[in-house]
């Protein structure tokens, strides 16, 4: 799957910007931790993206774009992220890379593609990076995944960790509730994050944990933490873009809606339907007249 073909800019909706910006790098993202500590850097901004057009719109405002396996629910209407395949991730990852020029593109390793062994994780990650052009992969799990993270990092594949609420383990966790409410579970999540950092993760997503855990992790690891349902004290934040934009009726507690695109799209569709039924669309401006 090539990501380097040329688009006809006169006909394609997916037209790249004329002068691409210089893309951020994984080392630059990792350095942000120290820059924030010195008061010289702003928190990292990450959003999910699954399509060329979404990537184009989000890219100028983000440090990282995450091609999340959340696409299983957001794009495909699946009940969880568990059924997502490498083929799905490859197709959407390539689209996001084609649509972006600035952000570091990180792509999720889907459930079942990396847990078996470090070698399996490397094969899956190498395939996704070759087929998409993404700069890094993300892997859920704590200390159990540390050997795989080290294996990939030592072989030139940057890995973003993911601890706390790990959606791929929803069947084991029994749901999507906040993690770390017990003292034992809180200690385990902190230990997991520290193990992932020691293994070489360049950043760690901390999801769905009680706030003190996120603060402790952020203070105790040497790579940036990116919170989602965690704490403003993390070194960055990530949200599913469709949640943030208000495209779904129900969103998690930790999501702030920055728009109501769902309502606006519905209103636009209703206006379109009304004009079609009234035969007022298409009008003279939208039809082609015969040449004299």
Explain how this protein is built.
By secondary structure, the protein is an alpha/beta fold. The protein has one domain: TIM Barrel. The chain contains eleven helices and eight strands. It has helices at 26-37, 52-58, 71-74, 86-98, 118-132, 146-153, 170-173, 183-199, 211-220, 241-244, 261-277, and strands at 44-48, 64-67, 104-108, 136-140, 159-164, 203-207, 225-228, 236-239. Strands 1-2-3-4-5-6-7-8 form an eight-stranded parallel β-barrel, surrounded by six helices. The longest helix has 17 residues, at 183-199. The relative contact order is 0.11.
Strand order of the biggest β-sheet: 1-2-3-4-5-6-7-8
- The tally of structural domains comes to 1
Mean pLDDT: 92
Tally of strands: 8
Briefly, what CATH class? Alpha Beta
Major beta sheet, specifics?
Answer: 8 strands, parallel, barrel
The helix-strand sequence is HEHEHHEHEHEHHEHEEHH
Report the sheet-strand fraction: 5-15%
Q: Tell me, briefly, the overall form.
A: globular
pLDDT < 50 stretches:
1-5
Short recap of the structure:
By secondary structure, this protein is α/β, with parallel strands linked by helices.
Characteristic key phrases:
TIM Barrel, eight-stranded parallel beta barrel, 11 helices, globular, disordered N terminus
Topology overview:
Layout: H1 26-37, E1 44-48, H2 52-58, E2 64-67, H3 71-74, H4 86-98, E3 104-108, H5 118-132, E4 136-140, H6 146-153, E5 159-164, H7 170-173, H8 183-199, E6 203-207, H9 211-220, E7 225-228, E8 236-239, H10 241-244, H11 261-277
Parallel strand pairs: 1-2, 1-8, 2-3, 3-4, 4-5, 5-6, 6-7, 7-8
Helix pairs in contact: 2-4, 4-5, 5-6, 6-8, 8-9
């Amino acid at each position: 799957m090539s990501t380097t073909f040329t688009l006809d800019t006169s006909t394609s909706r997916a037209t790249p910007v004329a002068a691409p910006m210089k893309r951020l790098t994984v080392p630059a993202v990792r350095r942000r931790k120290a820059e924030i500590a010195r008061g010289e850097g702003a928190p990292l901004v990450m959003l999910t993206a699954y399509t060329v057009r979404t990537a184009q719109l989000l890219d100028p405002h983000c440090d990282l774009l995450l091609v999340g396996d959340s696409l299983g629910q957001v794009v495909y209407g699946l009940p969880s992220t568990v059924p997502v395949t490498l083929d799905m991730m490859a197709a959407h990852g390539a689209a996001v890379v084609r649509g972006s020029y600035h952000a570091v593109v990180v792509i999720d390793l889907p459930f079942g593609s990396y847990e078996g062994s470090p070698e399996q994780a490397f094969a899956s990650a190498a395939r996704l990076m070759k087929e998409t052009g993404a700069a890094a992969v993300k892997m859920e799990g704590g200390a159990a995944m540390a050997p795989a993270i080290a294996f990939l990092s030592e072989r030139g594949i940057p890995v973003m960790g993911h601890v706390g609420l790990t959606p791929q383990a929803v069947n084991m966790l029994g749901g999507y509730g906040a993690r770390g409410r017990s003292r034992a579970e809180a200690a385990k999540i902190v230990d997991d994050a520290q193990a992932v950092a020691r293994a070489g993760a360049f950043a760690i997503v901390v999801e769905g944990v009680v706030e003190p855990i996120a603060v402790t992790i952020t203070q105790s690891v040497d790579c940036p933490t990116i919170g989602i349902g965690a704490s403003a004290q993390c070194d960055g934040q990530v949200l599913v873009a469709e949640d943030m934009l208000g495209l779904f009726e129900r969103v998690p507690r930790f999501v702030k809606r920055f728009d109501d695109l769902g309502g606006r799209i519905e209103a636009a569709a209703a206006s379109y339907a009304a004009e079609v039924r009234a035969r007022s669309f298409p009008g003279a401006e939208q039809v082609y007249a015969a040449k004299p």
